Amino acid sequence: MSFEFGLSVIREDEQVALDAFMHASEYFDKCFGMLWFKSDLEEKNKLSKLRGDAGKKGGTVKSEVYRVIHNELIRLIYAKAPANGWKNKISAVNGVIDSLWEFVEAKKIDSSHVKDKEALHDRVYLQWSKNVEDVKNAFNTKITKSRK
Questions:
Q1: d(CA 82, CA 69)
Q2: 110 lies in a domain?
Q3: Is residue 147, in this structure, part of any structural domain at all?
Q4: Chain-centre distance of CA 41, in angstroms?
Q5: Going by C-beta distance under 8 Å and a sequence separation of 6 or more, which residues neighbour residue 145?
Q6: With CB atoms counted within 10 Å of each terminal CB, which end of the chain scores lower, N or C?
Q7: Is residue 50 part of a domain?
Q8: pLDDT digits (tens, 9 = 90+) for 70-85
């Protein structure tokens, strides 16, 4: 609109026309900037969603891998438990860790948190036995509570 006004008054008052052209240029620049910002924002949102979806997919795959190991751990806790139960959690973990590590190697399970037997031992003892409900219940069932 300022541009059209500038064209219409350029013959009568050149300074007014130049001012109108400057306003038109400013408005054009702002509109152009808004378009660039919008396209940049849409690109960032698309990338963020893509990364979020990839993270969810990775988490789902990892949990499926861990579910297989959890099931074998629970089976081993029950199968290898002494008749009167394990004395404590660390003895239970120590009693099943070799068989569990053989299972992981036999299944060729590759995970960043199960690199070696020691890492698996720490994960079972420090995290899964406390945070994974099925594993926690298996430990609680097969560990003998000492009565004082």
A1: 21
A2: yes
A3: no
A4: 23
A5: none
A6: C
A7: yes
A8: 999 999 999 999 988 8
